[in-house]
Amino acid sequence: MDVIGIYYLFFSDALQIMATKVKDEIAISSCVHGPYSIPKCLEVLTGTPWLAGEQFGHAVELLHDEQNRMVVMSLKHNKLRLLDWIRYKYARAAQKKPCRSDCFSHVKH
Question: Is residue 96 part of a domain?
């Protein structure tokens, strides 16, 4: 490999590392300051009627994922659709939880 090839490999690796770092920094800042930030999403969730208790807690947990924050902000003007989506995600998560051995202890055989 010649000198130009070595420089090319070095700089392409360096550019890839820099691009990854910039992408990570953008993702971090968008959680706090961007249009899909957690604080902005929390404003939407706290202003959503009929969202309380465990479902509210689950909705807050959904905000860890950037795509979920995008959905929340996209549905902020349609609270019923937002509530339907949160309930759907809540029900899906509940189905995936493993059942403890005592969860049917109240059932009589």
Answer: no
Query: Would you say residue 56 lies in a domain?
Result: yes
As to burial, measured by CB atoms within 10 angstroms (0-12 exposed, 13-18 middle, 19+ buried), residue 45 is buried
Please name the residues in contact with 86: beta carbons below 8 A apart, sequence gap of 6 or more.
48, 51, 55, 58, 59, 62
pLDDT in tens, 50-106: 899 999 999 999 999 989 999 999 999 999 999 999 999 999 988 886 655 444 444
The Cα 11–Cα 37 span in angstroms is 33
Which pLDDT score, from 0 to 100, does residue 41 have?
95
Q: How many domains does the chain have?
A: 1
Global model pTM greater than 0.85: no
Print the domain residue range for 59: 29-90
